[in-house]
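Write out the 3D structure for:
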Amino acid sequence: MAGLTSTSGYAEEADDLFVRYEALSAPETHAHWRPLFPEPPARILDIGAGTGRDAAWLVSLGHSVLAVEPVKTMRLRAAELHPEPEIEWLEDSLPDLAATRARGETFGMVMMNALWMHLTAEERAIGMGHVARLLAPGGRLFMSLRHGPIPQGRRMFDVSGEETIALAAPYGLRPISHDRRNSIMAENKARGVEWTALVFEKPS
């Protein structure tokens, strides 16, 4: 993985990713999380928003979304595909989230879907603190961690739910859901890819 970064491969594979991600239903993908979402209207931060599929769905539920995506190719195309005025796009990235933090906002919900395992241990330690401070009191953090073969040209680490829970604890983030499940994407399922889904709550 020498020379690879957390976003390696995404710009190059944008065409394929848009086809694959948009073909998957957001309500189906996140059905296990849906009962834990805040009541609308909530202010939501979607970090690593990708094609905008999830942001558009969250807006359809009555929320407003700050969609953070570092890969320019993905971000510009996603903004065209999902032009809902309740989605605001921002170029920023973990672990620092400097542009996001500079806005001075806090959020009732933060989503980091299929993102955390791209970060090194040092980046995860830095990023968790910043994400925790971006959550409003009573807010919830939704995370998914990928387990399985690493695709060519990507940088990934095998990050466990237990490690992530321990990393979140000093910031007062309490795990309220911890689940491991098979991938619903046919290609990943065939490769034996599994996901850990975590939800944390910040004290009110």
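The mean pLDDT is 90.
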